[in-house]
Amino acid sequence: MTRILSVASECVPFVKTGGLADVVGALPAALAPMGCEVKTLIPGYPAVMEKIGKAKTVTTFDELFGGPARVLETVVDGFSMLVLEAAHLFDRAGGPYLDEGGQDWIDNAKRFAALSYAGAYIGANGAAAWMPDVVHGHDWQAGLIPEYLHNLCQDGPKPPFVFTVHNIAFHGNAPRERCADLWLDPWRLATEHFEYWGQISALKAGLMGATKITTVSQTYAEELLTSEFGMGMEGVLAVRQADLVGIVNGIDTDVWNPQTDPEIQTYKLPNGKKANKAALRSEFGLPDADGPLCVLVSRLSGQKGIDLLIEALPALLERGGQLALLGSGDPALEAKLLDMATGNPNVGVRIGYDEALAHRLIAGGDAILVPSRFEPCGLTQLYGLRYGTVPFVTLTGGLADTVINASPAALARNVATGVQVFPITAGAIANGFVRLCTLFAQPKVWGSLQRNAMRQPVGWETSAAAFHALYTQVTSKAN
Ligand code: ADP
């Protein structure tokens, strides 16, 4: 039995802004059959406190970055969790990272220092009688854990720390003057620890202090070492390259199951998709059309290439294609998309966050678009594969690793599952749309893409085994 303390700022089904929450929520169940017992520590946001109900106190802090706090333990629908209740940091309206006006919470550095400190404290002392063998932190919000472990474990053994980078774009920086404020040892404000261009960087602390670093696809692991994708951390990662591994994300194949999905009309290919497609068209007010109905479910940000998509879209529409999109984020992108939908009967846009609609879109679309500038792993193309909704993706990160491009060679061997576009420009995406429409116009070829897609394993089995192997490796090395 290996005991893992997983520490993250979001976790399905309690709180989610992106793929991080899906991964943190899904891994424990995938690891259980391999003899791993995972407890997941998350902040006690109002939505979390509401969902957990009664819980046992396992740790108390008289003072944790400006107020009292405690760690509660409970099991919700079989999910073992630890919740950091700290009203002064987490009991407020708004999102996990942003206030109601869409600005970063001014005290984010402290809020997630508190999460990291609580994680390190449990790593060093256990929670009740439970002592983790490994502490596994996710993204910068858990990045200070090795610093606090260093401070807390001066006289005793220190558990190994596995750090997973879901997105290198977010560094969690704070001014150097704040070491004392964040309970950090100012002597360690140095290149080999958490100093980053004169500042404190929680991400760098995690990268430098980790026993092993994972990221969410093999290609992203390689991209992180380049100046194009490393977002300024490529030098740090070069130092840690020997301990960096790519382990691709899986999806929850029970939640995303076209045979049992309660949000959709159950289907088997090739005919069953028709009903969902018709329902989706009517929900979005789109007319019948000859080209592919393309769908997109995403945060709306520069990363996701939405501006490139807008520019390339005429190439799809001119060939009878359509777009149904669900997303929220950057207000300028939201406005542009709504504007585009107003002027075009073949474009439907919903601004907002809606899990049920996401299922209906994936089920009803012919193709799922993921035109990202960079994409550490990406989940919606995996949903698409499972539902026979052909992924149309840029060639980057996890999109490169999980989709097999419909090249002549792949088509000849009947292994293609989607369309990949490179370079990542509006022009290449437009050319990709021409290819997509040509493939769609050949029902036999399209049918084989769909069948190949649906056959591809997208669950957690393989990746959970890779995490298990990593945990085994770090526990045997450290002790
Ligand atoms: P990221 O984590 O960068 O946002 P991922 O593709 O890894 O991107 O994960 C995004 C997750 O969030 C997916 O599960 C996707 O379905 C979901 N999602 C994103 N935007 C929305 C939305 N507007 N409504 C419903 N689900 C969404």
Q: What is this structure's SSE topology?
A:
Elements (H helix, E strand, L loop, with lengths): L1 E6 L11 H13 L4 E8 L2 H7 L3 E6 L7 E8 L2 E7 L1 H4 L17 H18 L8 E5 L6 H8 L8 E5 L7 E2 L20 E2 L2 E3 H8 L2 E4 L2 H6 L10 H6 L4 E3 L26 H12 L8 E8 L5 H12 L4 E8 L1 H12 L4 E5 L3 H10 L2 E4 L9 H7 L3 E5 L2 H6 L5 H5 L6 E3 L4 H15 L2 H13 L5 H18 L1
Parallel strand pairs: 1-2, 1-6, 2-5, 6-7, 7-11, 11-12, 13-14, 13-16, 14-15, 16-17, 17-18
Antiparallel strand pairs: 3-4, 4-5, 8-10, 9-10
Helix pairs in contact: 4-5, 9-12, 10-16
This protein binds adenosine-5'-diphosphate.
Beta-strand content: 15-25%
CATH topology group of the largest domain = Rossmann fold
N→C terminal distance: 15 Å
Radius of gyration: 23 Å
Which small-molecule species are bound to the chains here? adenosine-5'-diphosphate
CATH H-level superfamily of the largest domain: Glycogen Phosphorylase B
Quaternary form: single chain
Annotation keywords:
18 helices, Rossmann fold, 38% helix, single chain, alpha/beta, 479 residues, nine-stranded mixed sheet, elongated, binds adenosine-5'-diphosphate, six-stranded parallel sheet
Short note summarizing the structure:
The protein is of the alpha/beta class and 479 residues long.
What does this structure look like?
The chain folds into 2 domains: 2-250 and 461-478, Rossmann fold, CATH 3.40.50.2000; 271-455, Rossmann fold (3-Layer(aba) Sandwich). The relative contact order is 0.10. It has helices at residues 19-31, 46-52, 87-90, 108-125, 145-152, 202-209, 218-223, 234-239, 273-284, 306-317, 331-342, 355-364, 380-386, 397-402, 408-412, 426-440, 443-455, 461-478, and strands at 2-7, 36-43, 56-61, 69-76, 79-85, 134-138, 161-165, 173-174, 195-196, 199-201, 212-215, 244-246, 293-300, 322-329, 347-351, 367-370, 390-394, 419-421. It has a 9-stranded mixed sheet with strand order 3-4-5-2-1-6-7-11-12, sandwiched between helices. Strands 15-14-13-16-17-18 form a 6-stranded parallel sheet, with helices on both faces. The protein is built from 18 helices and 18 strands. α4 (108-125) packs across α5. α1 (19-31) links the parallel β1 (2-7) and β2 (36-43). The longest helix is centred in the first third of the chain and has 18 residues, at 108-125. The chain has 479 residues and is of the alpha/beta class. The structure holds adenosine-5'-diphosphate. Adenosine-5'-diphosphate is lined by residues 18-20, 22, 297-299, 326-328, 353-355, 358, 377-380.
